[in-house]
Amino acid sequence: MSDATHALHRETEAARVLLATYRDILADDEQARADMVEGETSIQEAIRSGLVRLAEIRAMGVGIDDMIDRLKSRRERLAGQQESLREAILLAMEIAGLPKFETDVGTITRKRTPPSVVVVEEAEIPSAYWKPSDPKLDKRALLEALKEGGTIPGAQLSNGGETLQVRWE
Question: In the chain, what's the furthest Cα-to-Cα distance?
Fold first, then answer.
């Protein structure tokens, strides 16, 4: 087999494997699968289609993150309104001397709450009232020590690996 034939065979096999993988990954997204996989004939076209899909996913992720931020902000505003309304209703019921108020929407009842702790100066609280925390592994320190050639029982460096770098500029 000539070098050119061997290279073409490797490229064809790589494209076949990549397209089969795309079909598996995109199984639940028929439109993306059709847009990306159907009709791809070379490894270059298949890789380009994968890169296009990565860009689409990245853009959707940014949009979703933005929407999540907006919804969280809205939830916080609504929680503030809820608390303010509860306080206003409680104050109105106190002033009116109403222990309970029934409507078609719901029933509101004033209830006593038990005392709660108010920490004035945390540093002055005796150790008997503190819970010890579990130790937490410092992986960064472990990595640095292992990279410097140290031997640490129960830890070792991985062989590393390979990743795909994508530049979007």
Answer: 97
- Total Cβ atoms within 10 A of residue 47: 14
Residue bearing tokens 């270059």: 44
Contact 86, 94 (CB under 8 A): no
What is the tens place of the pLDDT at every residue in 44-84? 787 888 888 899 999 999 999 999 999 999 999 999 999 99
**Distance separating alpha carbons of residues 71 and 77, to the nearest angstrom:** 10
Give 37: exposed, middle or buried? Use CB within 10 Å, 0-12, 13-18, 19+. Answer: buried
Calpha distance 91→107 (Å, rounded): 16
Look at residue 134 and tell me whether its pLDDT is greater than 70: yes
| Other CB atoms within 10 Å distance of the CB of residue 116 | 5
* CA 56 vs CA 60, 89, 149: distances in Å: 6, 49, 43
Give, for 47, the enclosing helix (H) or strand (E).
Answer: helix 43-96
Note the pLDDT of residue 68. 98
* Number of CB atoms found within 10 A of residue 133's CB: 6
Cβ atoms of 22 and 46 within 8 Å: the answer is yes
